[in-house]
Structures
1.
Amino acid sequence: MPELSYLEAIRSGLLAEMRDDPSVYVFGEDVALGGPFGVTQGIAEELGSHRVVNTPISEGTVMGVAIGAALSGLRPVVEIMFVDFITLAMDQLVNHAAKLHYMSGGQLRVPLTVRVQCGVQGNMGAHHSQSLESWFLHVPGLKVVMPSNPADADSLMRDAIRDDNPVLFVEHRGLYFTRAEVPEGGSGRAMDRAAVLRSGTDVTVAAVSRMVAPAREAAEALAAEGISVEVVDLRSLVPLDVETLVNSVRKTSRLIVVHEAVEQGGVGAEVAARVQEQALYYLDSPILRVAAPNAPVPCAPPLENFFVPDKERVVAAVHRTLASQPA
Amino acid sequence: MPELSYLEAIRSGLLAEMRDDPSVYVFGEDVALGGPFGVTQGIAEELGSHRVVNTPISEGTVMGVAIGAALSGLRPVVEIMFVDFITLAMDQLVNHAAKLHYMSGGQLRVPLTVRVQCGVQGNMGAHHSQSLESWFLHVPGLKVVMPSNPADADSLMRDAIRDDNPVLFVEHRGLYFTRAEVPEGGSGRAMDRAAVLRSGTDVTVAAVSRMVAPAREAAEALAAEGISVEVVDLRSLVPLDVETLVNSVRKTSRLIVVHEAVEQGGVGAEVAARVQEQALYYLDSPILRVAAPNAPVPCAPPLENFFVPDKERVVAAVHRTLASQPA
Amino acid sequence: MNFDTAWKAGIQGRSGAENMKAAKQGSAKPATRHDDSSELLSLLRHMWVIRAFEEKVSALYAAREIVGLLHLGIGQEAVAVGVCGLLDTDDLVYGGHRSHGHAIAKGADPNRLMAELAGRFTGYCRGKGGSMHIVAAEAGFVTASGVVGGTVPLALGAAFAAREKGAGRVAVVFFGDGAGQTGPFHESLNIASLWQLPVIFVCENNGYAEFTPLSAHTKVERLAQHANTYGIPGATVDGNDILAVRKAMGRAVDNARAGKGPTFVECLTYRLRGHYEGDPGKYRELSQLADWKKKDPIARFTRVLKRRRAASAGDFEKAESDARALVDAAAEFALSSPWPEPEETATQVCA
Amino acid sequence: MNFDTAWKAGIQGRSGAENMKAAKQGSAKPATRHDDSSELLSLLRHMWVIRAFEEKVSALYAAREIVGLLHLGIGQEAVAVGVCGLLDTDDLVYGGHRSHGHAIAKGADPNRLMAELAGRFTGYCRGKGGSMHIVAAEAGFVTASGVVGGTVPLALGAAFAAREKGAGRVAVVFFGDGAGQTGPFHESLNIASLWQLPVIFVCENNGYAEFTPLSAHTKVERLAQHANTYGIPGATVDGNDILAVRKAMGRAVDNARAGKGPTFVECLTYRLRGHYEGDPGKYRELSQLADWKKKDPIARFTRVLKRRRAASAGDFEKAESDARALVDAAAEFALSSPWPEPEETATQVCA
Ligand SMILES: Cc1ncc(C[n+]2csc(CCOP(=O)(O)OP(=O)(O)O)c2C)c(N)n1
Ligand SMILES: Cc1ncc(C[n+]2csc(CCOP(=O)(O)OP(=O)(O)O)c2C)c(N)n1
Ligand SMILES: [Mg+2]
Ligand SMILES: [Mg+2]
């Protein structure tokens, strides 16, 4: 089993689909040369430059072009270089990609994959560091996946491209160079299901994307204290695998959700709402969210560091939830 | 106390501020003629056509123009004709209006009011009927208000314009012609606070915008059954008045949130997350959400009617929460 | 393409798409060519179907048999028919909020279209779409949109796919003068020219965006000028003269099919009704309306055909009466169709 | 306006904004006029400050004393200084992701700017902004943005406010050739021309957007052509010739102040470094880089001044060495400044 970086794994999934299916095309700024991070590097050379289409800086229109191409039977993969710029493509993504299957009464399909790169890494400041995935929970017709590791990145990319719906594939810049083993030919369908990464009995910690790492580290550290933490990688945000969470909470009676997006209106809110709805009577303490403070992303190192949740904050939340009891 | 329609009340609040403060300008499509609904009718005639600026169909840039004008000391009110089209102005609103005060370390201020009209009314279909307010809970630096009645419409408009931050003022098309008394000179500061419209002891029903009416009707109907419902009009979504909700839930032990936006990722998720966090041990049953199904807004009357939550659905949810008990 | 086959078939109850398919069997290329009399008469007939359809919609709206936000293209029929008459079924057309006529001209079945407007399950979109969001995939009318300018980028995508497939198909997008000030429109001109896509931009410049005249939206008098900046061939034609539209469109289609890239066809026209049904239209002078009524594209083309002796008085009358009959039947089909079940509200969200 | 006062004051430790204010006391209008020798020398000095500043930034970045995503404008100084040299403090300038030079040219204090890049509390934005998001309000540098094209609409708003206030102020926005393909840019040209706003569009056409040459982004060779479509006077000038920039800009400022509306100034230039610090720059030929090095705007202007005998050899040397001293001081100020407290992360979210 080869070891790949997260970035290479994205490419591996993409390339596998592109080799298989000549209707898969890539659109994006500078993608022919690999983009600023190199994800699409070498694809044009292997499969022809017509398959990897450099675009002008016109996010909204490029999204529309990809949707139109999808309506005509291609399976485009469009790259938005930073999720911050998806703000320029919201009309096409929300009003057209997500809705046309429904609005047409099923006549149309939009098999589109939107690659976006998100998150805090490298002091890039408020216009290149956001995590905006939760907006898209509120857009019926879109699916949203968010891999936390190379194997999932590879598999979810394959799943996303094969899906007949628009799928937002959210990459975390801070994970690009993390390495792990990736089964050749993909590790099987990863979409639609959360993954239980570590089983435990005292507290469930559900995390997304880069936050899975501090969740695991926290579980490790807490194990030393005799606290048994179950770690769940949400992986798919839409559809959200509530069943796995509820099953876990029935066992642990406590839940903490960890994400890098700001707390208010984040994915943690939907998770909390759904889990309390289905498992309130199993809960021994309130569901807590460990997330960024409600602020834009600052640039300076001490601020950026403070912004991003870390292992310590997860540990503290676990202690808090274990200490919590009726007033 | 004059009786005004919701639409007239918005105009009354706007006009009051515009008369007081020559730096308040209105920008939007067709606003000089009143816009398609007539909200800004007559203002140009009274205050000069330079104060009510018709714009091309360029939502993104017009939003930017208003922000730039706000940075230069004006207090612009920009109208996005349907919230569905705010998708075209997200970059300016999210990356610039909301963040510039923070990103500049306090050097800049953006005293901007964004009027958007939302909701299902009149079989307009998926591109003219959405409720997207919950996205903006996730955008630090923005405030969001959502009046449910003429008096609040008038007061919140005044508050929004006077606020030194960008405020999203969300109007519901289905309320435009509802009438009620509006105190002259405004009813005092309405921003930042929820309003308890009816006090009760058995269940709290928190509703937003047009959903306040079915919440009240449900309370009325349930009173006849001997069920006492406390009705809270959220009114301000950012900041969210969690205190009022928590106080109410401490009394009633049950909470239902009602909104017209689709359930997943809606405001109800954040409300549920916050209330269970602060009041879990007071809850006798799960917090329920009564909201639109997770679908685009359909056009045909039977579908549109089914889409929008109504009194019956609120009543059913109240019965459900009262019947709920540990398995 | 011979519209007549389609037309007659339509009367006989075949779906619009089937009609168009049948009609196009013998489709002669290139699109630029001399039209014979029967072809010209068929253009007139198609304009009449659109006119009759929209007048019926207007009446049904007044009677509250149809609800929603309706934008009629009465007075603009020459653009729809002039453009779509030169296309095959598998050429792909995109429209906007005022696209009943575009869809019909492209071969959409009036029955299913009317049923869609009436919110019935037999409608093209099962009642989920509605007037501003027509999809008639079988006819190659891909989609309209309620977002002004929203379909322009989509049409580029269709053109991109067509080019990659090498089938010689073209993509066409209809949009208004108001859309000409939207960013996506400009981004699209750039990309279409950069990639030399087989897309045809059809701008229906009716002088107004909602209540505001074009002069209050831009200083650019002819939107085709923007195309010229990008080196896209652009023509501004009298949009109420169907033959002028057809001529410009013929060149555009030939160019696109020949791999010579995009064309911009700006059609100067006027909507004879309000922006939407119910719009009191106070922002326009009655005299302006009267002037444009004189330029009614149907009356005008009828005069041309008379002058050319291309048809008899009976033909002209029959064009109208057949259209009215077709549309009456469509209305009856629609209004006697079942409503969608409420539970349909949450189906088909994902494919 | 006399840059020299500002310059000297700067050396003496006054803030940039104070400098500019002092310098502008005697500001002579109109902007279009003959420059005397001391004024010319001061332009050179300002270019040197920017150059020295960015070379220092590059060195500090290499030493990991400064982190983040840095885009340097080395090689483009003639545009920044040519443009801003004709503005007063209360004229409002907007920039983009490559705007260190624009801010300095507008009078931002190098100390506070360097501190911002170094993430310190003494920075203009208390470390919250960073390299792509400079705000130096006191100097009339309103804001930059990490969103390509993002500030173009904002500058229109500033121009709108200026016009309403009737103060004769102008707004200026710097952006790149890549921004010229964004929708907001085109929407902005339309609105600026429609409303005749006192805004000056300064396009720094350096031939590349990231790794892709302009020719792969558009078929339009001169972005000024778009302005022309809107009737906006547009000139394309040699952006490495500060006097050419200044001449075009002088006319633009005079027009804007006189209420004659917007102007578009396209400056052909080249960035002598990578797109961002760390970019290996493989997409450009070394020979191209070498050619452009010969056109270095500072060396070139120095030659002009020499030819005109506008300054002595000592003056030239001093221009550079003073700049380096100033910038060394700025770096020292920045690196010895305190970091912001972590708790600052969640302050100033709302005003
Ligand atoms: C993005 C967007 N902004 C605003 C509207 C509201 N609106 C509907 S039609 C219209 C005018 C469109 O004018 P034009 O493009 O000339 O088409 P016409 O109505 O004249 O056919 C406007 C502003 C919209 N539907 N979409
Ligand atoms: C809206 C948006 N899309 C993409 C990017 C990523 N990006 C940063 S700089 C750049 C190229 C900009 O080119 P140009 O406008 O010519 O400015 P230059 O870098 O040459 O100064 C791109 C694509 C961005 N910052 N903003
Ligand atoms: Mg129009
Ligand atoms: Mg460039």
2.
Amino acid sequence: MGGRSLNSSKGQKSASNKQLVSFYQTMLKIRKFELKVAELFGEQEMRSPTHLYTGHEAVATGIIAALRQSDPVVGYYRSHGYYLAKGGDPNAMIAEFYVKATGANRGKCGSLLLSSPEVGYMGSTAIVSGGISIATGFALAAKLQKKDTVAVCFFGDGATEEGVFYESLNFAGLKKLPVIFVCENNFYAVQSRISARQAISDNIYDRGSIFNVPGAQIDGNNVEEVFSAAQKAVARARSGEGPTIIEAKTYRWHEHVGPGFDTDFGWRPKEEWERWKAKDPVKNLEKTLILNKVLNEKDIIRIESEIDKIVLKAFEFAKKSPLPAPSELFKDVY
Amino acid sequence: MGGRSLNSSKGQKSASNKQLVSFYQTMLKIRKFELKVAELFGEQEMRSPTHLYTGHEAVATGIIAALRQSDPVVGYYRSHGYYLAKGGDPNAMIAEFYVKATGANRGKCGSLLLSSPEVGYMGSTAIVSGGISIATGFALAAKLQKKDTVAVCFFGDGATEEGVFYESLNFAGLKKLPVIFVCENNFYAVQSRISARQAISDNIYDRGSIFNVPGAQIDGNNVEEVFSAAQKAVARARSGEGPTIIEAKTYRWHEHVGPGFDTDFGWRPKEEWERWKAKDPVKNLEKTLILNKVLNEKDIIRIESEIDKIVLKAFEFAKKSPLPAPSELFKDVY
Amino acid sequence: MRQLKYREAIAEATVQAMAKDPTVFVMGEGVDDPKGIFGTTRPAYEAYGDQRVFDIPLSENATTGWGTGAALSGMKPIMVHARNDFILLAMDQIANHAAKWSYMNRRRVPWTIRTIVGRGWGQASQHSQSLQATFAHFPGIKVVMPATPYDAKGLLLSSIFDPSPVIVIEHRKLFERSGNVPKAFYKVPIGKANVIKKGKDVTLVAVSDMVREAVQTVGLLKGTRIDVELIDLRTVRPLDIQTIIKSVKKTGRLIVCDTGWKQFGVASEISSQVAELAFKYLKAPIVRIGLPDCPTPCSYSLEKVFYPDYKDIIEAIKKVLPEQKTRKIIPYSKMKITEIDNFTGPF
Amino acid sequence: MRQLKYREAIAEATVQAMAKDPTVFVMGEGVDDPKGIFGTTRPAYEAYGDQRVFDIPLSENATTGWGTGAALSGMKPIMVHARNDFILLAMDQIANHAAKWSYMNRRRVPWTIRTIVGRGWGQASQHSQSLQATFAHFPGIKVVMPATPYDAKGLLLSSIFDPSPVIVIEHRKLFERSGNVPKAFYKVPIGKANVIKKGKDVTLVAVSDMVREAVQTVGLLKGTRIDVELIDLRTVRPLDIQTIIKSVKKTGRLIVCDTGWKQFGVASEISSQVAELAFKYLKAPIVRIGLPDCPTPCSYSLEKVFYPDYKDIIEAIKKVLPEQKTRKIIPYSKMKITEIDNFTGPF
Ligand SMILES: Cc1ncc(C[n+]2csc(CCOP(=O)(O)OP(=O)(O)O)c2C)c(N)n1
Ligand SMILES: Cc1ncc(C[n+]2csc(CCOP(=O)(O)OP(=O)(O)O)c2C)c(N)n1
Ligand SMILES: [Mg+2]
Ligand SMILES: [Mg+2]
């Protein structure tokens, strides 16, 4: 407990080649969707605060791959990755970005509050830390219902400064709840550096040690490592051993919200950005797959073009969909 | 850091005999005042929720003895000990219990929200954990003002379940603020046992380890041990080294609120209660002082009778004081 | 009919809900202890044990999120807080999350928060607030305030089985009061005010403990010609404004008595809606009765001026009715007060 | 006169307060970053450095307590939150502690919270709330809402130097608007509404961004005979009800436009006070304009129906004034709208 990785190796299997290819497809899908969003953002048709996940793709992909579709996931405003990895409908996602009636949330949420409860992506929150206790509640229900469901919450490094994180860790540790707390530590909250906000900024994975919640700190840009940590945590949770923290170190390429870059106005050192760009989770997996002869250049081209089609179709669907009618305003308040 | 006691021995001096006698006087004063409150409570003249401190006396006494009067202290509803140890006027205290115009808070607070800012007892709160961030704010001011003030917050074990405790630890650790977090761990919150509420119930002193805040777990019934831990923490704080947690294990003799006993209705094992009663912080110090020939029986009688006089006078003062006039209602809202 | 105390009615509703539906559970600080929550949760604990009635840490904000997650998973959580002051710590989960979840995600959150207003006996500023207006400001939340043992049971049962988040605000002063409570499982509908007494001169709307005071006042006015129509609001959100409007159209006069602060409070909302929807029926200004503009003091000498009572209601009646109607009101000194505050603490 | 943008006026007030008084400091998430808080805090950071303008962890409840403790120690903290939705996390420290501290302990808490209402461009339910009524319900707190660059500076300076806790609720939509702002240090008094335009037909009270809409509406009514008296409320608590009453005594008609929800909101409070204190002067029902009873939707097609505008104000005017007065109002399609929403995100 409290080490940089979980001691137990139960439930650990390294990903098969087939799985790795599927991870690659998911990650590339997330990437390509966001590239298109960034490209078209200036058109002013996707009008809602949009927080790009580019750079983080391995985290959502690797964690969610270790789950069942029925396992509930709660995310935060940087929500596109969870939605797609969980199997949410791409058309409905882009329609939601265009705030259309056909959107995943009928135009009520936009990018930052996306969800798809049908596939277990239960909700996003735009309040930092807001989902942590809710995911813990999913796990509480699983325990009360004696189901082997596992709940997952994704959140940023900033969320670990909010008290509700510790309140939930204590309760999850006390009741041995089947919940996995996934912190995507990208070292920034908006423009604010983690060292300006946290007394010890390198121990998020270990913050559960005082509550009997073990943790692992992993390379969030390496989907195999993410998947492996997730499998261990899921196995722990499903077998009644309780919660786990996974701290995945990663990096956000874009500015906090919107399609620009923090390097544009000199806030982040260009060098830092370049260094992390070299750790591109998608490209690096692609390289490995080619190196290990799991895929060849042709396969890549095929996969790319399949995804391009999905992306294109989704934007077409979204653009031609109608806006919500005024009567939608008062629906679903209660 | 994170051990059961602070490693540094800086600032540590054992209490002189003179100091011990003064501790004894303070503790006995708290005890005797509360005995009288319990005795007269049934008269229904002290009408406000009253949380007796009996059993905890060594904590307030030992900690506050290591402070200057100008050092700000924030307490909670179990407030009588802090008030008296900090040097609050006994007449005004009892008048406040009788909710009189001459009370420390002009009849606006009663027992549970007592304060005396004039002597640095800045306030009590009836919201569990409510004072922790405020005391941290006192320390922040000291740092900004470059003063060597030390702020102290007292709270119960229950308060360590509220997120604001961790939020404040992080900030105090980050900014190395001169604040001491004193947790009086009496194992209960109202009737609820700590084991039903906390994932790990024996490590409150260590909860700051993840935020660079060292801690010490001490015998809260031993005023010398409390004083010694307080001196170390105060020295750390005054010299700019930052915050400390002191977890003082102790026991509340009475029921949570009111003059009865939890053993009355079978909630607590009588045996547990007896065991702690044997650790009476006041009687045990008295025994030590006699054993070491610092005081003799006569001295004790003299001290007792001096305190009895103060107590008597305070109740007389309170009883004959007027109730607040209706015009007081709207005073000091802003 | 069978008599139960308000607190016994709450306890009975809890047990019956749990008997009927295995997804109902109770969590809260001290819910399993013999004195806890004034005896309202212990019977459920005794009947269903610590898997369905359990103690939790002091973490109000997270607790509410645990309830939301559990509710979204098919459970019906009842969260209990001994004072509504404490759930100000949970405002984020109540107002930013639970209130909006259905709107955002089209999945409903069927939880219930039970919480209590403290009043009197020196509860002072942090244990006495009556915060219905604060919670009711947020669409997505429902707020009920039972004033009788009958409603305490029936409204709690409605709340537990309601598909939305409901905050049930009980009142400490009512806990020991007795009233008719059928043994059977029954619901009192959320969003429906109760016309306690028909009348034609003035409409008196009261909330929670102020219903008690209003009933006493009506009693004190027996022998005068004043025919009060007395309405127990029962639900703060959604407001049953139609019942009030209907009454005001008849009486032309309205007095609203709330347990919370007057400013930005429930009485203001009712007053403004009536002034908008029934303006031309009004024969006199609407009078709001609520707490004055300061925190709660501790001393009983100040509580006496802080809390409104029958005298405030009678003064309001004198204000809205013509003099010949109120002439027969006897002096306060001659009134036989039945509502005597015999609460003796310690909490 | 010198023109500044609303956000520049806030920045200038902050710098001037810090120049005048060394105990003033600023803390908040991102206050030191070049884009942070829309540029309002960066000039102070540049002038006074990271000892007096500093970034903090995301811990809204504790932060408020840090502010309270610092304020009680002789400092004048300014705490900044990019949205007022976030300080629901701090309700306990705001309402249970800061609001009551002076009453309990006779020591005042001179802090300022600056926070912002988001509106439009898909802010959706958790980044767009306008929660003045929630905060203003608590005696002990003051709440101001500047509508112009002039007031943004003057009210912020008053708030910083006010001995009590003040919440300054700014509005995102106003940040880029320009107006007269004297260079000198000046204060706009808290608790004093501003009669922007005298008139005799109808009193129009507006709050924050609704002042902008109300001014536009008055412009659109030029050429009709309707003489509107336009009042910018400026302060929500303490309410300057006298200025409103005085106006209503003259006009006999009142419309109140708020940026928050209508139910249990600021407009309801004003309406009920006026109906109580100036009942006999009222010639028509008071009309409240505020947000309808649902969370904020994201889509601009729904935002358009959700947010009230000049049409709602004109409809209200038609409702309260006799037909012969409103006959000359031209059709909406012919009106020249000056207030065009050209906000383009991303936040
Ligand atoms: C409670 C709360 N406080 C402040 C904000 C403003 N805010 C939005 S995103 C954000 C940064 C959060 O950073 P982090 O949790 O690390 O996630 P990241 O954006 O880096 O993925 C902040 C401060 C908020 N949304 N909610
Ligand atoms: C935020 C909050 N939640 C709940 C309560 C109700 N309550 C009052 S005292 C108390 C017990 C606190 O126990 P602890 O902190 O251990 O202090 P002790 O009374 O044991 O000294 C509780 C739960 C409260 N006052 N405030
Ligand atoms: Mg981050
Ligand atoms: Mg305790």
